[in-house]
Write a structure and sequence with these properties.
With 173 residues, the chain is of the alpha+beta class. Helix content is 27%, strand content 25%. The chain has one domain: Alpha-Beta Plaits (2-Layer Sandwich), CATH 3.30.70.100. It has a five-stranded antiparallel β-sheet. It is globular and about 65 Å long.
Length: 173
Amino acid sequence: MKGAVQRQTVDLSSFPDLVVIYLGMRVNAWTGIRTLLGLGPQIQDAVDKRPEGLLLHENFIMSLFPLHLGMRQYWRDFDALEAWSRSMPHRQWWQDFLKSSRGTGFWHETYFMRGGMEAIYDDLPAPIGLAQFAPLQPARGPMFAARHRARLSGQLLPPVIEEAQFYGGDGPA
């Protein structure tokens, strides 16, 4: 029997350290629309500059009501993703968001070719993704940094903001 559907797959052997990250921003208040629309062109500009290690960037709409936009990115490896997340303009975006979410919620979920996942959820009114079935816990101590959440070895780069500075104390509570 000849199949009517053309099936294909991919050979990922050239990408042993591939990382896929889903990111999203959800409008929580009217001011969040301005935040979201202001970041869109900035994100596109950063993607157009082809950061080292970024293989592909795709945008998608998760919902219109409430407005919830997403991105999927494929990175050569976590080191490239982590280095970019510590550089400008991402560093400034993240610092600004952590001072005030400006009416938006943000999240990301990261999946590793070699196994493992990690995620963060900020200012979301209800659990999404992994948080809908896995217990949530504060992003404190080892759970503050993506490298630690993913249980990856290697040198931890300086964070965009120190945990003590973010939480207003001297360390994990």
